[in-house]
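Box S2. Input/output pair 1.
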Amino acid sequence: MEQPGGSAEHDAVVVGGGPVGLCFGVLLAQAGANVVVLEARPERAKHTRAIGIHPPGLRVLRRAGVADVLLAEGVQIAEGVARSHGAGRTREVARLCFDPPVLAVPQWQTEEALEARLAEIAPGALRRGVRAVRVEQADGGAVVHCADGEGTSTGFSGRWVVAADGARSPMRGALGAQHHVPTRSRALPDAYLMGDFADTTGDGALAVLHLEAAGIVESFPLPGGVRRWVAHVDEAVVDPSARDLARLLGERCGAEVDAASCSMLSAFTVTERLAAGMLAGRVVLAGDAAHEVSPIGGQGMTLGWLDAEAFAPLIAADALGGAPAGNGPAWPELWAAAERERLAAARLAARQARLNMALGRALPPRLMAARNAAFRALYRAPWVGGRTAARFTMQA
C-alpha cells in the first residue's frame, strides 16, 4: 500500500474514475492485472450526464459483467421518430428502428455498477480523493504523482498508465516534450440547453427529434418516468433556468413541460478535440483525453469503452507476459493497429456528430419545410432508415 512520498508497483495505473476509467479497471482486473484507479472526486456526482449506451458499448459492458444490472435499471430505446410542428399540427417526418436497442441509463448509475464490479474483483483498487498532477516516464513503466485533499504527495508507479482523465486531461498535458502528443481542437458554432423533466409526453420509450425552423429539439426517455430534452439555441446561455427551457420547448415544438419537475439543467457549447495519437511511451490516452466529440449523438462514452476493449487486453498481456523491460510495448504491431483503429473510429464519430449538429441548426421556415418534405420522401425507403439507424448507434 502506498505511503506518503512512496510508491508501489502496479501493472496499470488508471487515472480517472469515470465510466471509461472504471471500465478499464474492471477489464484489467478481470485479466489478472494488478490495477489501481485514481479519482480526484471524493464522492460520485449524482448527475445524469451521459445517458446513451449504444450496442457496441453494451457489448463491452457485458464483458465487464455489468450489462445485466444496467439493462434491468435502464430504458431500452428501440425506436426513434422525427417530427415537425407547425400550423397547429404535428407531422411525422421519419421513423427509425434500433436493433439492438440503445440503452438509456443515467451516468451515475453506470458508474455505480462499474464501481461495484471493480470492488468485487479488486477490492481497494479505486482510490477516491487522489488528484493526479503529473506523470513521469521511467524505464519499463511510468509514475503518476498525486496530491490528496491534505496536500500529501504520493506516487503510484506502474508498467502502464491509462489517462482516462477527461477532455482537459492533466496527464496529457504533463507528458513532456519527449512524449508530447499533438492535439487538434476547434470550437463549433453550436450551443444547447438541456434539462431532465417529468415525462408527460406519452411517448414512452420512444426517442423523438423535433425538426423545427428555430432549431432542433431532442427528447429521450430515462428511468423513473423522466425525459431528457435538448434544444439547439442561437448562442451560449449564461444563466439557464428550467422555466426558460420549458417555455422554449412549448413555443418551438408544442411540448408541455413542468418546470418545477426539473431534476437536471445544463447549458453547453461544443468543442471537438482529437489527439494525433493515443500512445506516449508507457501512457495510453483514452476516452475524452484522446478524442472529445460533441455530446450530440451520445457516442463519446461508448468510444471510451471501445478504447478499453482494444487496449486493456494488450496492457494485461504485456504486463503479465513478462516481456523485457523497456520504453515500448511488446508486440508493437498490435498496439499500432489498435491505435489506428481507435483513432479512425473517433474521427468517424466526430464527423457524425458534426452532421447531427448541422441538421439541427435553425433554417428559414420554407427551407425547413422543404427539407422535412425531402426527408419524408427519402425515408420511405427501408434501407435508408436502416443505414441511418446503424450510423446513429455506432454499428456502421
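Box S3. Input/output pair 2.
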Amino acid sequence: MDVTQTTAEGLKREFRVVVPASDLETRLNDRLARLKDQVRLNGFRPGKVPVGHLRKLYGRAVMAEAIEELVRETNAKIVTDNGFKLAMDPQVKMPEDKTELEGVVEGKSDLSYTVELEVVPAIELADFKGITLERLVAEIGQEEIQDALKRLADQNRPFTAKAEGAAAETGDRVTISFIGRIGGEPFEGGTGEDIQLVIGSGQFIPGFEDQVVGVKAGETRTVTVTFPENYMAENLAGKTAEFEVTAKTVEAPGEVAMDDDFAKKLGLESLAKLEEAIGERLKADYAAQSRQRVKRQLLDKLDELHKFEPPPTLVEEEFKSVWETVVSDLKSQNRSFADEGTDEEKAKAEYRGIADRRVRLGLVLAEIGEKNGIKVTDEEISRALVERARQYPGREQEVWDFYRKTPAALASVRAPIFEEKVVDYILELATVTDRSVPKDELFKDDEPAAA
C-alpha cells in the first residue's frame, strides 16, 4: 500500500492511497474463508462450502466490505501516524469512473482513492495563573425575602364567590368557557372549558381580559381580539378572532395572612422556616448569577489569549446553526434586519465572528480538559439525565431511554457538564477578587455572551 500526502494548505490535508489488487485479493480470501464456517447452503455440509463457490455468490458484496474496512483502517493509521486531531470525519473520494471501480471490485485493478482531512491546529495554552477576574456578589437582605414572600402569598391567595349579580373587576378570578372563531369558523386551540382567569394577569392575549371586566356569573358576551403578529401559532398570527365567552363564576381575591399557618400549608413548620427556605433559594439564585458573570469574564479572557485559525468546516457549521436561529427569531417576531439597525450582510459578518469565537473557545476548553485529565463521569451524566427526565412527568423512562440510545443527545448532556468542570479548574488557578454590589447591578442585563 502506498500513502502519499498531496496537499497541506492551512488546516486541510489530502492523501492519495493506492492499494494493490493483490492486497485486496488477500483480504477478500481471508473474509471468504471466515465466511465458509458461517454460511449454511443446501447441498453442502457446514464448513465444507468451496471458497470458489462462495466467491461466485458473495464475492462482490464481500469485496465491498473488505474495501470499506481497509479504508477505515487506513484513515485511522494516517491520523495516528501524523498525530492529527480531526475537526471532521475524513472525506473519502473513490474513483468516479464506473469501469475503473468495477475493475477494483472484481479484483482486477489496484484501488486508488483520496482522503481529505481537516485538522485541529496545535493550541498553545496561556498561563491561567496570570488571569485576573472580578466576581460580583450581592447580599440578600430582609427586604428581598419579604418581597419573595409577598409574591408567594399572592400566588396562593384564596378566592371567594362574589354576591349574585356582582360584576367582575380587575384582580377578580372568573371561571369561563369559550369558543373562538375566525371568519365564523371555529379554529384549533380556540375552545376552552372551565378555564380560571385572574383578570389583569396577562394570561390571555392582549385585549381579551379587558373585555371580560364587568361580566357577571351566567353571562355570555362576545370578545373580539387580534392575535399579535409574532404569535407562536403562525396560522393565527395577525388574525382577528371572536370569542363567545360564558362566565361560570366570579370570585374576589381574599387576603393571605403570612403566618405559621400559611407556612404549614406550603409544607414548612413555621413562617421562620419558610423565610429561611426563601433565603436559601435566593442565595442559590444570586450565586448562579454571580458565577455566570464571572464565567463570561473568563471566556472573554480566554478569547483574548487564544487567537488562532479555527477549522473552517466547524466554523461554517456553527454559523449555519446560529444563522438559522437568528432568521427564525426574526420571522417569529415579524421583524427585519432593518428593524435591528443593520442589514443582512452586516448581520452575517457579525454572526460569523460569533461562530468563530465559539469554535475557538470550544477547542480551547477541550484542550484544557484533555491536558489536565478532566473527565465527565457516568454518575454525573446519570444525575443530569434524571433531572432532565423529571421535567417530563409520566414520561421519565421514555426520556431516559431516548438519551441513552441517542449518542448526539447524550453528548448534549455531557458537553455543559464538561465545560463547567473546565471553568472550575481555571477559576482555581486564576486570581478572582470578590466585589460587593447591589442586587440591581448583579442582575443588570448586560450584552449576552457570545459563547
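Caption for Box S3: The first helix runs from residue 21 to 36. The chain has three domains: 2-118, 158-253, 262-442.
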